[in-house]
Amino acid sequence: MTLTPLLSPLELMQLMQLLKESKRVVVLGHASPDGDALGSALGWSEYLRHLGKQVTIVMPNAVPDFLKWMPNSQYVLYFAEEKDTAAARKAIQEADLICCLDFNLISRLRDELAAVVEKSKAQRMMIDHHLGPDTTKMKMVISHPEASSASELVFRVINELGGYDNMSRSGACAIYCGMMTDTGAFTFNSNNPEVFLIIAMLLAKGIDKDKIYRNVYNCFSQNRLRFWGYMLHEKLQFFAGGKAALMAYTREEMKEYKYIRGDAEGLVNQPLQVKGCRLSICLREDTEVDAIRVSLRSVDEVPSNQIAAEFFNGGGHLNASGGELRCSLEEAIAIAQQAIEKYRDML
Ligand code: 5GP
Ligand code: MN
What we know:
12 helices; binds manganese (II) ion; binds guanosine-5'-monophosphate; globular
C-alpha cells in the first residue's frame, strides 16, 4: 500500500513554479489557532526554509498554552499582540508569497489582519480541508475536505515535492501534532488507512507520539480540571430528550477558575460521551472582543455546520463547527435552544 497522489502533474508543476518565483514567504493560520493551524504552519515553514526561503509565520492571535511546547513555535508572530504587530505587518507587506493554511476564507483571519493580507501584492496559495474555499483570492488552492487535517495535506504536498527525506524530527512532530489534535487523537475523521501510513512515516523520523499526546492532553492546571468539573456538574443541561446538550459560561466564571487560553478546548465534546447525545453546543463570552463564541459538535449525519451557519453566523465541518454571536449570553442561550428545537427531528 502506498500514498495516493494528492496533486495532479499539472498542479505539481504549478506549485513548483509558484515556490520558485518566491523568496519571502508568509505562512498564515486562522484566528484562535489550534494544533492543526500551528502544526501545518510549522511543518510547511520548515520545508520552505529547506528550499532557502525567508519564512515568517503569522497567526491572528495567540495559540493556547498547551501548544507552546511545539518546537519553533516561539518564532511565530501573533498579530493581535502589540510586540508582534509591526513585524507581522512588515513581513506581509514585503512577502512575495502568502500561504493560507487550515482556513478557507481570508475573513477567518479577523478584520485587521485580513485587510493587510488583501492589500499585499504577494501571490497567495491555500492548503486546507474546510468546505467551501474562496478560490477567487488565491493563485493556487489545494483544498481537500476529506482530509483529516491541513497537517496531513502539508505532509502529502511536501512528500510529493520530494521533501520527505529532509524533514526533521521537529517538522514531523508538528505535522503529527496537527493530525492528532484535529482527529481527537485519531478517534474521528481518520478512517482513511493512508492516515496511518503517514503516521508510520512520521514515526520513522523519530517522533515520540506518546509524549506528544501527553504534552497536549495531560499538561493542564488543577484549575482547569476543577473548571471542567464545575461545568459538567453545575452548568451542563440536556434537551430534546437527552439528544442535545448545552453549556454556557461567563468571563466572571472564567476568572474564578483562573482560566487560561485553551482551558475549554475539548469541553464541548464531553456531553457526547452520554449514550444518545448527538449534538453539543458550548457558548462562552469572548475575552478579547464583545461577542459570544459558539462551538458545536455532532455525531454521524447531524449537520453541526448547517446549524452553525443558520443560527450562529458560522460554519465548519459536518461534526465540528463554530460561530459567533453579538448579543448577551442569555440571548445566545435562547438562540441555542431554538436551534435545538428546530433540529430536534434530525437528532
Ligand atoms: P472550535 O469549536 O474548535 O472553535 O471550532 C471548530 C471548527 O469550527 C473549526 O475548525 C472551524 O472549522 C469551525 N469554526 C469555528 N469558528 C468558526 C466561525 O466563526 N466561522 C466559521 N465559518 N467556522 C468556524
Ligand atoms: Mn484543521
